[in-house]
Amino acid sequence: MRSSGRQIPVVVLAGFLGSGKTTVLNHLLHHSGGSRIGAVVNDFGAIEIDAMAVAGALGDSTVSLGNGCLCCAVDGSELDEYLERLARPSAGVDVIVIEASGLAEPQELVRMVLASEHPQIVYGGLVEVVDAAEFDATRARHPEIERHLGLADLVVVNKLDRVTDASRVLDPVRSLVDRAAVVPATHGRVDPELLFDCRPSEERVGQLSFDDLHRHDRGEEEHTGHLHAAYDSLSFVSGRPLDPRRLIRFLDSRPEGLYRIKGYVDFGPYDARNRYAVHAVGRFLRFYPEPWAAGEERLTQLVLIGTGLDTTALREELEACGSDGAPHVDEHGMWGVLRYVQEPGDPGDPGEFGESGDLGEPGEPAA
Ligand SMILES: Nc1nc2c(ncn2[C@@H]2O[C@H](COP(=O)(O)OP(=O)(O)OP(=O)(O)O)[C@@H](O)[C@H]2O)c(=O)[nH]1
């Protein structure tokens, strides 16, 4: 129900693991013109990597619901508390974006927003981000994606730079949505206007009827059917720098079920100035060096998510990637890592050539 006064739309940004939700959110934060976006970042895994990735851009207007999946919350009260905080006039927020964990059930999140009793909060629509390069594989493994697309108000088909024929993804996506807009994108570059305009009518909320949304049948049984019930995740934190060669060997031989790796790596003396953000999605792997902040604790923090993972063995393998603290580094040690660093203006994408191990001998890395 609407009330008088300033209404703040709450947009739910969902999508499968690694599809580009954080990238879309960051794009919105940097291109929202005069509007101020409040963000709720819902992470999966004990370390709030996503919250770290969007931090800085947001200052006080981001809140993170770390440690678990929002749709598993017993009730929406925690979410409500954050929405309340962001909706205060002093925050000056025009729109709130909830970035769902890649494993969240969008329908549950939509229900929670609708259940919010805050008079200024109004549901602003469901945006689903799709990884164009992984669409067929994801659909084969997780047919639920079809239902999620059917619920969406706006679908961002992201990573089109990684496919040769965009229509091979756009056409099936269009056939799965009903009235939702399907927006092609690379690097999450969507017009913010699209999101803030996608507020659904009061009568219709995406493809969900109000009866659907207010149905309260979230028993354990239904819950185990959620996408994330079948996933394993591992959080790895270490104060000991990693050896780049060992880490690359680990990544080269990562099991197929290890679908997503994200976080930050400290290579110690191999590059004392930078930490390396790492993103692996399926076969795609990329490192992004970024300077350590002054006084920042030098830590490696990784979250690994996948199916059928032997998390104990993976943890041991990661431990074994620790550097043995040799007094001097070997000058070629970083080559393997640098092959996965994209230089500005470099359209090349090593991930498209196959597994990291398929790349043959490394060339001289750019300085
Ligand atoms: N080539 C390419 N890479 C992209 C694009 N958009 C995002 N990426 C990369 O894909 C990886 C995953 O992007 P994220 O934005 O972290 O994805 P996410 O959906 O938030 O991931 P989870 O939080 O794990 O669900 C990162 O390495 C991004 O830089 C794109 O359009 N093209």
Automatic annotation (TrEMBL):
Gene3D superfamilies assigned: CobW-like, C-terminal domain, P-loop containing nucleotide triphosphate hydrolases
Region described as Disordered: spans on this chain: 342-367
UniProt entry tagged with the keyword Transmembrane: no
Segment forming the signal sequence: none
Chain ranges of the CobW C-terminal domain: 231-322
Similarity section: Belongs to the SIMIBI class G3E GTPase family. ZNG1 subfamily.
InterPro entries referenced in this protein's UniProt entry, alphabetically: CobW-likC_sf, CobW-like_C, CobW/HypB/UreG_nucleotide-bd, P-loop_NTPase, Zinc-reg_GTPase_activator
Protein name: GTP-binding protein
Organism of origin: Streptomyces viridosporus T7A
Keywords: Chaperone, Hydrolase, Nucleotide-binding
Catalyzed chemical reaction(s): GTP + H2O = GDP + phosphate + H(+)
